[in-house]
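Teaching note: in complex prediction, the entire set of molecules is handled at once rather than each chain in isolation. The prompt given to students was simply: 'Predict the structure of this complex.' The entities are:
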Amino acid sequence: MTRASSRRPGPPTRTERGIPEATVARLPVYLRALTALSDSGIATASSEDLATAAGVNSAKLRKDLSYLGSYGTRGVGYDVEYLRYQIAREIGVTQDWAVVIVGIGNLGHALANYSGFGTRGFRIVALLDADPNLVGERIGDMEVRDFAELEAIVKADRVSIGVITTPAGPAQEVCDRLVAAGVTSILNFAPVVLSVPDGVDIRKVDLSIELQILAYHEQRKSGEAALPQVPELPAMNGLTDLPSVGGGVGA
Amino acid sequence: MTRASSRRPGPPTRTERGIPEATVARLPVYLRALTALSDSGIATASSEDLATAAGVNSAKLRKDLSYLGSYGTRGVGYDVEYLRYQIAREIGVTQDWAVVIVGIGNLGHALANYSGFGTRGFRIVALLDADPNLVGERIGDMEVRDFAELEAIVKADRVSIGVITTPAGPAQEVCDRLVAAGVTSILNFAPVVLSVPDGVDIRKVDLSIELQILAYHEQRKSGEAALPQVPELPAMNGLTDLPSVGGGVGA
DNA sequence: CCGATTTTGTTCTCACGTTCACAAGCTCCT
DNA sequence: AGGAGCTTGTGAACGTGAGAACAAAATCGG
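The expected output is the structure of the full assembly:
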């Protein structure tokens, strides 16, 4: 989010060609909904239809689409095929992106086999691992190659996206190597916070965090119904037998 | 104009017991950072230290923690163990949550084997699949059971969290069954928008969407440097050879 | 015992995102 | 042809979140 060059106090601002991040995150959802409608043989859909299919509010959907341009027809709706193409073009999935997966454990395996992956816009060009026991193993129609080949592969296949499915330990080093090799977008499944230089985008998928967020809300639900005897914060005021902040010995 | 001082003029308000959603999403990150510090033998950490480890701004971290209570010591910092416990308690991972995984394909396999899963706060109590060929297969120390047993398992083990790793097709039906059985939190890996009744929380993990978001930004990067000849929206005005909105055969 | 130093907790301001509400614009029917 | 009826695109209000800045509180040295 290094897009802070908009000092415009003015109203519209138009953001030149900048689409809000929240909107970008929803475009793929719209794209999927449109594809489903298209497969069902539906040629035209209103913002209400689309919003329902995408699981969002119709006003939000219309505003999101308005950032791309005026691709609808008032009184009618959106042409499914046409809008689908426009969104695909805006996202960039009309071209193919070369992807490498690093770390062929359970998750790497699963991703390598995931079909809906290469079908639309993304092409896995290599599966890499540093473990010599894994190198050479066949997965689908691909073969696991040595992580040392990374630089050559990135250069040869113009790889711009790297997926990290290693354990937490080696993740930062793998990340550094990817960046050094020229990869500028990284999808990280390892449970660590990776640091990357400016100009490199990174996104994180973290199962454990998602579960914990669910647990928080779940605890709320049970708590309201059954266990209202939570300590609550003011109770801390009197507590002196806690791990003795800062000293233990002194004070 | 309209200083928006409608209801509460704005004192503390304390929000009763409500923690902002954005903060809830970061608490697990802080928890992980604290665990790492704890494992390194560090007993006390300042907000600056913690923020660096968690990859956020220190002011944000302090504000986040302030929603939980005053667990720090001015001039000193936070006691790592104590704060870790408080956050864990707030999230709810001091107790164990029973989890079922439905759909034992590649991804389900990977999750079932994922160790960092059951280690902290979550216990996988069943792996379920409707495919008779899979039922009975052993994965780690568990055995795949028939999806028909869902209701009995949820009731017996007080399962509150369900993970859906089926293909898109059966996902909504699986979801409905989970909800009907009493599951109130769902983590969905299937590439569809699931609808659930009020009171049920749902979170989504979608590889394909993450990649598309990366592709969007990647296209931007290349575009700024090399391909500035994108059609751009006003070009559509003259286009009449597009899929003929609304016309065609029948409506 | 007091002042200097450190670091938290909180306030204030600004930017972003969501939702409402409605005018503009298109189609269809009379 | 002209008006009725829809549906889009957008302006404006509202709510949430981020970050800077500072006052309050705790330790430590003299």
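Point out the following to students. The first strand of chain B starts at residue 44 and ends at 45. Residues 2, 4, 6, 20-23, 57, 59-60, 63, 73-76 of chain B lie near DNA strand D (CB under 10 Å from a C1').
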